[in-house]
Design brief:
Elements (H helix, E strand, L loop, with lengths): L1 H26 L1 E5 L13 E6 L4 E3 L6 E4 L8 E6 L4 E9 L4 E5 L2 E4 L2 E2 L1 E4 L11 E7 L2 E7 L9 E5 L4 E5 L9 H4 L2 E2 L3 E13 L5 E2 L9
Antiparallel strand pairs: 1-2, 2-16, 3-4, 5-6, 5-16, 6-14, 7-8, 7-13, 8-9, 10-11, 11-12, 14-15, 16-17
């Protein structure tokens, strides 16, 4: 016990700082590594994204227990959720809200019977020559989506109604994303935060060198 007291006296400032940081990352904000390309071209492999954990809920630190609901996810939000179905933490875009009827035909989305608008997206990246890049107009949000040259088995699904308390989410890399087409609707309680910015990024294919142009880039 005396050794613990001495350790506390000698390192009190550091211990308090670490404790505050752990609480902050648990309940206020954190950053997530992105190891897959399911959200390309919006989020690249190697991006570290800032997660606002108070975007939707005030949670008890170190738990997923919501103390106060602050807001609900909106259409177009990029959300982080702890998926029980996938047994993993995932990052996807909210497409369908509770009560919405969503369908997809040849990678063209329809929400509540209205087809979304798509336009060709401009890009200067050499590594996307084998892909099709489009800008999808999702409500008030225009964002890029990436399609494979040939349609995949994920390009179509019949109209489905999003249940109460759930959300339909998709990856921006539409032909390479295990999203609601694979894991089903996402329960509200699994959503832990919203991503809005890239803190920094490392290029895994180029000796982990930093991608300076992506530092503090908005999503």
């Amino acid at each position: 016990m005396s050794k613990l007291k001495q350790l506390w006296r000698n390192n009190r400032g550091l211990i308090v700082f670490i404790g505050i940081m752990l609480v902050f990352r648990s309940a206020v904000a954190d950053w997530n590594d992105v190891p897959s390309g399911s959200m390309q071209p919006t989020i690249e492999i190697g991006d570290r994204i800032l997660v606002n954990k108070m975007a939707y809920d005030l949670r008890l630190p170190f738990t997923t227990q919501s103390i106060v609901k602050l807001a609900d996810p909106k259409q177009g939000d990029i959300v982080i959720f702890a998926s029980e179905a996938a047994d993993n933490r995932l990052v996807k875009r909210v497409i369908g809200l509770p009560g919405d009827v969503v369908a997809m035909q040849q990678n063209v989305l329809s929400i509540n019977g209205k087809q979304l608008d798509y336009t060709a997206a401009e890009t200067a990246e050499a590594d996307v020559v084998s892909a099709v890049l489009l800008t999808e107009q999702l409500g008030n949000i225009a964002h890029p989506v990436k399609l494979a040259p040939s349609s995949s088995g994920l390009a179509n699904f019949a109209p489905v109604k999003v249940p109460a308390g759930h959300y339909l989410v998709l990856g921006d890399n539409r032909d390479n994303s295990a999203d609601s087409r694979v894991i089903g609707f996402v329960p509200r309680h699994e959503i832990v935060g919203r991503a809005g910015k890239v803190l920094f990024s490392l290029d895994y294919d180029n000796y982990y060198l930093p991608r300076r142009e992506r530092f503090l880039a908005s999503l």
